[in-house]
Predict the structure.
Amino acid sequence: MTITGLPRRDAALAVLRAAGTALVLDLAGQAVPRVLHWGADLGSIGDCEDLLLATMPPSPVASVDVPVLCRLIPTQADGWVGRPGIAGHRDGSVPHLRLRQVRPADVETRVEGGGTVRVEAADTDAGITVRTELRMEPSGVLRIRHEVVNDGPGTYSLESLVGLLPIGEHATELLDFTGRWSGERTPQRRPLQHGLALRESRRGRTGHDATGLLVAGTPGFGFRHGEVWAVHAGWSGNHVHHAERLPDHGPVLGAGELLTAGEVRLAEGESYLSPWAYFAWSSRGLDGLSEQLHRFLRERPNHPRMPRPVVLNTWEAVYFDHRLDKLTELADLAARVGVERFVLDDGWFTGRRDDTAGLGDWTVDRKVWPDGLHPLVDHVRGLGMQAGLWVEPEMVNPDSDLARAHPEWLLAGPGRPAAPHRHQQVLDLAHPDAYAHLLARLDALVGEYRLDFLKWDHNRDLLEAVHDGAAGVHAQTLAVYRLLDELRSLHPGLEVESCASGGARVDYGILERTDRVWTSDTIDPVERQAIQRWTGLLVPPELLGCHLGAATAHTTGRTTGLAFRQATALFGQAGIEWDLTTCTREELDQLAAWIRLHKRLRPLLHTGTAVHADHPDPAAWLHGVVAHDRRHAVFSLAQLTRTTESVPPRLRLPGLAPDLCYTVTVCPEIGIPTGFPPRHAPWLTCGPVRLTGSVLAGIGLAAPLLDPAHALVLELRAD
């Protein structure tokens, strides 16, 4: 145990610090620890007793006669009248817990930064124990989770349990996100005022409109400036994020699982473990947040293997029209341009000629594939590519052999199926027989074809989800996690993509057992610029599925040039969603050159620091990735709409080393966009320029006047 403090009056502090961030807890007395500070690492704390005295607030006016303190689990017993840290009851009685520590807090610090605090508190009269764990990661990301144990007789109904931390009182703005299918992660900003700002998802999955990250910050914070605090619920079912400010206390952020009526009822001796709530702080704006979050994911022992392969997915190339001759030709062209992983999408299994039938019948359709998938898979492997397959294990079509044979396996009350969604119902994976059947089928598929990859889809919300007569989203989510974990333990080399009709299941819970997310079902590059930009706050580039498609996007009907599509798909795990048999020889050559560029740059793109300029022209976005040693970087200027400027503002490139001298070149594989009339900055056509990082950040480069849906990609190398 490492605790700093003074012995008199039992004063004691726990301080966890890493990557410029610190958490300071007051461990004195028997109460649940008070959070004194979460934010910048302040260095030496000094006299513990003086700090506690100096930070003790007065009691609020016309309220309780004691100071209202923000504890790790705030309750009304502390005078807390905001959203409680825990809520529940024992058949209507004991609606309010009075938690007191039952043993000294366990504090462990790490030499490399961070550490762990474990607190056990109980309300012995109510028969409830709560164990809290906080982990400060070396990246500066702080994780919190709670475990509730029913020690008493009878049933305890848990209604809510969240991780919660106070933030700076000078945080006055909120940033969260909404969206829809093919329009995920749309930002929205508002003042952080008195009251509760609540974001709930009751979709049974994370959702296209999920905020993902709830951010509070100082006035006008941006990518490169401002102090910001953020929270993320690492859970793939119903969840909640909230920010609250009341006259009695400063602002707080919280997140956790959203529990519906009767969903968690603990019998004597049973427990509930909450998902992790992830907290991040930065004094350097949103880029500072994403740097911490990306580093946290990259330091996990199960982070995907490098390099991340270039993918071709067949969906927009053939849809349900599965013909071996067409698909082998597509594979030939994929290999020719440098694709490394070939994924057969929906339409390969029994009865699946459209989306109205067949889900649940995970056997190869012998009418379409008389020899099984072996001819295609063997051909793909013979070309040197990995083989992948689309599945949607959690769903079932009513028009399927499985649904007809086992109506009791639906996630619904008897005789009460949910409203149809894409002709689908949900398979109850918490039903032991349904789970065993599905695991056996997936195990057989992966084993027979030695699959390298599964695109794991999830195309509907879980409405009126009922398992064994009670609310079923919690049990379903845990069963999905268990299914993924068990399947991957059976096939250790298998990679899985989380797809949920695009980006409707992007969260750290699913990313604990998958290798990338499908960012959106739209690959219209104009829409993708925004979706990738904001999803990238939470998820690093190597985990973002970023594909390019046909000139005319299937989801929007917008037509864009190949260079802009390439520039957009470059900044992630790159791939193709296009019928290459329709491409000209010139287009195939351009694709091959682009893939060579991506392979050359991906050691940088998939390990470096993502940066975004607070560019003064809202019609254009300037972003990039800078290597950790800052000797190599790549930037993109993407023109989204027509600018009102006749001469655009200079390109000031963030994140570079001030004293290094960089050679700046245009990536020829994407080229210099041409407009009408052409208005190029002279340096673009007169050869590369050499400038210091301080000049590139402070003075910048003259920008070309680009038409909408055009982009410029620059590579920088230090001497």
Notes: The first strand starts at residue 13 and ends at 18. The radius of gyration is 27 Å. DSSP finds 14 helices and 39 strands in the chain.
